[in-house]
Design a protein that fits this description.
This protein has about 120 residues and is an all-beta fold. The radius of gyration is 13 Å and the shape is globular. β4 and β5 form a beta hairpin. It contains no helices and 11 strands.
Length: about 120
């Protein structure tokens, strides 16, 4: 199983980025897909997830109203649209896959990707 995240970069406060995570080696439509982030010196933080069917999503409080998660099961891809970015969003962003579970903590996820760095700075 591989989860390959991309789309990170340097952006000014108030800007936008779209992250993508392409999954391979699993039956994508059976997996909840989640995004987590970790900033230097901080605990890993739940960002958002989307149920295997795409029918339900959940967001962390710090990103609610600014980030949107979506998935395309035909492309084995999950996206994270990040708008109105703030310096405190600076972190490494990782996608994760959990089979037929829908949770916000790491133990619900079976596979993890390498991550992509997002830096928000002027």
């Amino acid at each position: 199983v591989q989860l390959q995240a991309s789309g990170g970069g340097l952006v000014q406060p108030g800007g936008s980025l779209r992250l993508s995570c392409v999954a391979s080696g699993l039956t994508f439509s059976r997996y909840t897909m989640g995004w987590f982030r970790r900033a230097p010196g901080k605990e890993r933080e739940f960002v958002a997830n989307v149920m295997w069917s795409g029918g339900s999503t959940y967001y962390g409080d710090s990103v609610k109203g600014r980030f949107t998660i979506s998935r395309d099961n035909a492309k084995n891809t999950v996206y994270l649209q990040m708008d109105n970015l703030k310096p405190e969003d600076t972190a490494g962003y990782h996608c994760a896959a959990g089979e037929l579970r829908f949770g916000r903590t790491p133990q619900f996820y079976d596979y993890w990707g390498q991550g992509t760095q997002v830096t928000v700075s002027s």
